[in-house]
Write a structure and sequence with these properties.
The chain has twelve helices and 13 strands. With 346 residues, the chain is an alpha/beta fold. Among the domains are: 153 residues, 3-Layer(aba) Sandwich (Rossmann fold); 64 residues, Alpha-Beta Plaits. The chain is globular, with a radius of gyration of 23 Å. The relative contact order is 0.15. The protein binds adenosine-5'-triphosphate. It comes from Zhihengliuella alba. It is found in: Cell membrane. One of its GO terms (molecular function) is kinase activity.
């Protein structure tokens, strides 16, 4: 990343919600000291499971929510207090769009463009994003993916310096997703700071210059995709063996740190980190069982492998690190499981 002043700096960000009636009126802490930087000319991604705290972090970074601790600097200002001083320089695409249902996309984009001194040409933006096909249909009649494209256009029409995109590919078909990705890369190349959230590994891996993985309202890892997927040389590659033989699971392989994934077609895959010891364990096991694999490969570790490892080996959807993100806050600021009662509240 460049050494110039970042577009966005977040340090030690804390956010509490409540009081929550279901928790006897206690507050819940959802952000526990999040830190991040977003540079101009880069796509910075907040990657996390549902409920990790991505949207809350973005809302604080945009000045929509007041932090309960820590600092946020957006274009050199505290966004919560700066108001109009920075609003025209920031584009925001919210989850669920927040679009007025009875307005038509063309009218909406012309209206939003009219609020800025040097906006994009709404017609050109609509053509680029394929909105012209439904430019005169009321927003409430549009599909989720069509609304998503209108929301993106509304975020970009003012020619912002920083753009916040919350789950930008949600609901898009593959072609629209490709168009949106190309546009995001172009904006990045034109020098904009792009901050996006996603829980989709593929989006993060394809788009990001720098990734912050957050879980339970905390930073758990950060780096470029290359750094995150390869900074541990011994864990940089994933070992995969495919064989056509009925097999469910194997304790011997499990003990060696390898997992067996059967599929419907009677094949199975043995997956693990490609250390020499694992390779030796697998080949010895194959020999003992008289199985000749149809494929044996060592692949680069993907962002998903890193993420699942950090999230405790469960699926990306709903993976946790052991404590729920909205667990109550104890007096010392530590999260506690929901079943336990803290002695006090904040
Ligand atoms: N107003 C609120 N009151 C209480 N809890 C809230 C409130 N807003 C968010 N939360 C909780 O804060 C946590 C973080 O929510 P947030 O929307 O930031 O997560 P996220 O990572 O963006 O998730 P998703 O991918 O599902 O959008 C969640 O547990 C959520 O239930």
């Amino acid at each position: 990343m460049s050494s110039s002043t970042p577009a966005l700096t977040v340090d030690g960000l804390r956010k509490d919600f409540g009081p929550v009636a279901a928790l006897d009126g206690r507050m819940v802490r959802v952000l526990h000291g999040i830190g991040l930087r977003a540079e101009f000319g880069a796509v910075t991604t907040l990657l996390g499971t549902n409920g990790a705290g991505k949207s809350t972090t973005l809302a604080c970074a945009q000045g929509l929510l007041k932090p309960d601790g820590g600092t946020v600097s957006l274009l050199g200002h505290d966004p919560y207090r700066a108001g109009s001083a920075i609003r025209s320089r920031v584009g925001v695409m919210l989850q669920d769009g927040g679009l007025p249902p009875s307005v038509r996309p063309a009218a909406l984009l012309r209206h939003v463009a009219g609020m800025f001194r040097a906006p994009e040409d709404p017609a050109a933006l609509m053509a680029r994003l394929g909105i012209d096909e439904f430019a005169h249909t009321p927003i409430r009649r549009l599909s989720g993916g069509q609304k998503q494209r209108v929301a993106l256009a509304a975020a970009l029409v003012g020619r912002p310096e920083v753009v916040f995109l919350d789950e930008p590919s949600a609901g898009l078909d593959p072609q629209s997703r490709q168009t949106v990705f190309e546009l995001i890369r172009e904006l990045r190349d034109a020098g904009l700071a792009i901050v996006l959230t996603t829980h989709l590994m593929d989006d993060a891996q394809r788009l990001s210059d720098y990734v912050y993985i957050i879980s339970g309202g905390r930073n758990v890892a950060e780096g470029t995709v290359a750094e995150l997927t390869s900074h541990e040389p011994t864990e940089a590659r994933v070992l995969e063996v495919v064989a056509e033989a009925p097999l469910a699971a194997d304790a011997e392989l499990g003990a060696a740190g390898l997992t067996v994934h059967p599929d419907d077609g009677g094949r199975f895959r043995i997956v693990g980190i490609s250390t020499p010891a694992h390779l030796a364990a697998v080949t010895a096991w194959l020999e003992r069982h008289g199985v000749l694999p149809t494929a044996l490969s060592m692949q680069p570790r993907s962002l998903e492998d890193v993420f699942l490892h950090l999230a405790g080996g469960s699926g990306a959807e709903g993976a946790t690190t052991g404590l729920e993100p909205d667990a109550p806050v104890d007096p010392a600021g530590r999260r506690t499981p929901l079943v336990q009662r803290p002695n006090g509240t904040e």
